[in-house]
Structure formats: C-alpha cells, structure tokens
Amino acid sequence: MIKHDEICELIPHAGEMCLLDAVKSWDEKNIICITNTHQKTDNPLRNSDGLPMLSLLEYGAQAMAVHGCLLAKKDGVIMEEGYLAALRDIQLTQGWLSDVKCELEIGAERIYADGGNMIYTMMIRANNKILATGRAVVVAKFRNSENEL
Fold first, then answer.
1. Cα separation values, 54 from 10, 58, 60, 97, Å
2. What SS3 class is residue 85?
3. Cα(7)–Cα(14) distance, rounded to whole angstroms?
4. Hey, which of 75-79, 94-98, 142-146 has the most confident mean pLDDT?
5. Strand partners for 107
6. Which residues face 117 on adjacent strands?
7. What's the pLDDT band for 94 if we cut at 50, 70, 90?
C-alpha cells in the first residue's frame, strides 16, 4: 500500500491539498485509492456549508494523476506536467460529501493512452454506494533525465 506521504512525492498536491490517504492497489490500467479526508473540517475544498459533491472530481483527478505518475516511474520517466483537459458523462449523487461518514474508495481506469494523451473513467464509492462516475481526458508531458518525450 502506498501511503499519503509517498503520494505527495508523486503529484504536485502537497499537505492538505493531497486528498488521498493511500493507494490500495494499482496495475497498468487501474488504480484504487482510499481516503477519509472528506470528513476533515479543514479540507481545503470545503466551504461554509460543507464539502460539495462536486469535490469528488478533484478526488478522481488526483487518483488519475497518481496512476500516471506511478506508470511513468515504472517506465523510467517523470510526469512533468498533467492537465485535466475535459470531463464527460459526469454523474454525482445528491447531498454533501462532508455528510458521508465512511471511507471513500476512488477508482480510475485508463481506457486509452497515446503518449501524453489519456482517457480515464472514474468511479467513487462509499460503502459500495456509487457517489460519482465519469470520464476524463488528461494531457501530460513526460521527460526522462536527458530528454523530453
């Protein structure tokens, strides 16, 4: 299991902005992360009313970023930059994420990759209840120690 501090070393989100507690599992296509940061009163995405369900998109995006960085590291390169270019078919459950009192499971599957262009699907659950689903287009820039790829 990859813990929070190791995740912070992979992605540019550090400290409280790194919303993932751990990577439960990952392979070439999939990643599953877990977290309880949605329950924190100092969550950086929280507003005066609570934590909106829309925040789940950031959780999904961070899982995709971690997956991309882990794959890059495995291939001996570094993901230098990554951008969420588009979101499609987003489905969010109603309510407030801050009202969810159990651990979140954030799953992402890379369904297409060509160089720095990737398409992921995501599914975020709490106690096996689906809170969010959707697709994302990610554009990334990779480099090794000598050249850009």
1. 24, 8, 11, 8
2. strand
3. 9
4. 94-98
5. 32, 123
6. 114, 139
7. very high
Residue 149 lies in a domain: no
Of the candidates 118, 134, 135, which has an alpha carbon nearest to the alpha carbon of residue 67? Answer: 118
* CATH code for the domain of 58: 3.10.129.10
Which helix H or strand E contains 141, and what residues bound it? strand 129-143
Q: What is the DSSP letter of 146?
A: S
Q: What are 136-149's pLDDT values in tens digits?
A: 999 998 888 565 44
Range of the domain at 71: 2-143
What values do phi and psi take at 66, rounded to 5?
Answer: -60, -45
18-49 per-position pLDDT tens digit = 999 999 999 999 999 999 999 999 999 999 99
pTM for this model (two decimals): 0.93
